Amino acid sequence: MAEIKKSWSVQFNERSFPHVQQAFVLPPDRMQEMDPFILLAEDWFKRGTFGDHPHKGFQTITYVIDGRLEHIDNKGGRGILGAGDVQYMNAGSGARHAEEPVEGDIVHSLQLWLNLPASQKNSDPFYQDIYAEDVPVQKIGTAHVRIFAGDGGPMKPLVPFTMAEISMPADGQYNHKLNPDHKAFVYMLDGRCVFGENESVLEKGQAAVLTKGHAIQMKAEERSKVLIYTGEPHGDPIVAHGPFVMNTQEEIRQAFLDYQAGKFGPEAK
């Protein structure tokens, strides 16, 4: 069985308008040890925060907790995500898009940056919108498990990756299956849970890395909601700068040159 390896409390930072509040659930300075995960950002924001911008060399998984998030890309794609919806984006060889709240809304979201192996850094960019009603929910005992990726979930990532949300009532218990070859971490969206046979306690606003194992045991001390992410490490060098994640500093420099030369296409609007 897996156990809690390391846990921490997320530090939330007040920002100026329109980016109301921000936190790194998974800080980017831990990307080397968290392969294939680069960062997990939690944001509260109004329109005018994340207008047209580029990405290259990685994937994003954006989970909308509250509000309506409008997505626009420079290939003609457009859509609106609501609470419980997720968007998977492969930036690959270069994407350019905007992620903005519908006018008047404040969006609360989580965005995971998931690295691509060197062999797929130049893959074709694409988007996949996953709506809450299309996500299978498994009822296991008193737990309700929403599977976004892995085990029949609708997300189609380019790399081995799983994402699940577990909701439990007070005193609920659940064992979540894991791939022992994956890196795994959890984030408490709500409540308070005891994890593993070592009975490590996490509460709302705390995150933790798990040890390797085939499953993680959890018991809810109060009504709780937990996100679990797992991914297969690929061991490639990671160099990140701004919106680009590559394998070398020279590749980062080339990404900036390509963007400035218009190779990512026109503005998303």
Automatic annotation (TrEMBL):
<feature type="domain" description="Pirin C-terminal">
    <location>
        <begin position="164"/>
        <end position="265"/>
    </location>
</feature>
<feature type="binding site">
    <location>
        <position position="99"/>
    </location>
    <ligand>
        <name>Fe cation</name>
    </ligand>
</feature>
<protein>
    <recommendedName>
        <fullName>Pirin</fullName>
    </recommendedName>
</protein>
<dbReference type="InterPro" id="IPR011051">
    <property type="entry name" value="RmlC_Cupin_sf"/>
</dbReference>
<comment type="similarity">
    <text>Belongs to the pirin family.</text>
</comment>
<dbReference type="InterPro" id="IPR008778">
    <property type="entry name" value="Pirin_C_dom"/>
</dbReference>
<dbReference type="Pfam" id="PF02678">
    <property type="entry name" value="Pirin"/>
</dbReference>
<feature type="domain" description="Pirin N-terminal">
    <location>
        <begin position="42"/>
        <end position="114"/>
    </location>
</feature>
<dbReference type="InterPro" id="IPR012093">
    <property type="entry name" value="Pirin"/>
</dbReference>
<dbReference type="InterPro" id="IPR014710">
    <property type="entry name" value="RmlC-like_jellyroll"/>
</dbReference>
<feature type="binding site">
    <location>
        <position position="97"/>
    </location>
    <ligand>
        <name>Fe cation</name>
    </ligand>
</feature>
<dbReference type="GO" id="GO:0046872">
    <property type="term" value="F:metal ion binding"/>
</dbReference>
<dbReference type="Pfam" id="PF05726">
    <property type="entry name" value="Pirin_C"/>
</dbReference>
<feature type="binding site">
    <location>
        <position position="55"/>
    </location>
    <ligand>
        <name>Fe cation</name>
    </ligand>
</feature>
<keyword id="KW-0479">Metal-binding</keyword>
<feature type="binding site">
    <location>
        <position position="53"/>
    </location>
    <ligand>
        <name>Fe cation</name>
    </ligand>
</feature>
<dbReference type="InterPro" id="IPR003829">
    <property type="entry name" value="Pirin_N_dom"/>
</dbReference>
<keyword id="KW-0408">Iron</keyword>
